[in-house]
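>> received
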Amino acid sequence: MGKFVSGVKDFFEFCEEKEVKFVDLRFTDIKGAWHHLTYRSTAINEENLTNGMPFDGSSIDAWQPINKSDMILKPDVDTAFLDPFTADTTLILICDVYDIYKNELYAKCPRSIAKKTLAHAENIGIADAAYFGPENEFFIFDDVQIKDSINESFYRVESEEGEWNDATEYQDGYNTGHRPRTKGGYFPVQPTDSMVDLRAEMMQVLEEVGLEVILGHHEVAQAQGEIGIVFSDIITASDNVQKYKYVVKMIAHLNGKTATFMPKPLYGDNGNGMHVHQSLWKDGSNLFYKEGEYGNLSEMALDYTAGIFKHARAVAAFTNPSTNSYKRLIPGFEAPSILTYSSQNRSAACRIPYGAGEKATRIEMRFPDSTANPYLAFSVMMMAGLDGIKTGAGKDIVGPMDDDLFELTLDEIRDREIPQMPHTLRGSLEALIRDNEFLKPVFTKEFIDTYQHYKFETQVWPDESRPTAFEFKSTYSC
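>> returned
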């Protein structure tokens, strides 16, 4: 799998060969959502492909003011792929956003930030390639209902896999009784795993849009799944997350289901993570590899890991950017919030996966989740890691720790002075306000200010001001 188009000339030949009717321009906003504009293919020419197409930047959250709203979408023709879901043949192009007022890539465009991050690593002479392999988990539900009003709020998700349906009488069929149970989904065969065909369809369509698929399986929670894809460079890996989420949601939708990457939609069962494998390379060599060391990790790899841990509270503002993120990062649900590293141990925040030789050696950060904007999350981790290399942070890292860290009590964690992830989004954003110098070579002050204000206004304050069902249950009669 891989590219379908290489260069402008090849783009037009591909459009002609596939009889493309529409060209869909896609870009990513600050929170990670995909947006699009659709052009007739006859309106696309070499000039506007090269110079870009205009759009209104003031209509995108936390971007431009109304008096400076004109922006440019610059398509990356090498990202072209056919949309598998449109009735008419539509070619999708992923775009960067260009700032006409400063004549440069837009400082708030997440994809442009990822490009600047890689360029920064090259400019300081550390690496010329950065590889990322995200693992995005998801839930597939049969139905979701939400209400959020002044005097009433509730959510309800439904799945035939849910053990709460053991006594349900189904009008159009019988109750099979085959269910994975809470924390029991890893990974029984059919009929307990009800999503085999659905995942298979997702895997095939993901390959159609250019991703290299390895495997698919049921995850630990009820109604939870995961599809594994091959790692790539920081930009392509981020693009692939957007494509992955699009395909998973659409395949579920077209099959009368609904998919979500929300970190913690079920109380009492495991949540969705986005484990991120990472390595830096230069001149074709893996800088994270040193044979014979613990996990075959080099000193640079430890410095990089320690840099992420050193700035973890600020990093979390990007890798775990929703209030729901922190409902996943609690003890008891395989959520790695303890900031240490370990070989093959999934209870540590950083795991060194098993693998033989230079090509397979990497670190796996296990705390991020899929509410993260992938371009920003990968960039922030890389910037923190580069800062760790620059400052030699590995000398202060805690670990390795090969214990089952999920068995430690909070008192034991504190007594052993093991650092932890923040416990709330407010905590991570306040850390970002205090600790952001490591981002400054790439992230502008304006972007950091905009980001933290946006998250406070759209996540923290709305969440903190709403009563919950648990609060009624625990305080109503006081």
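>> The first strand starts at residue 22 and ends at 28.
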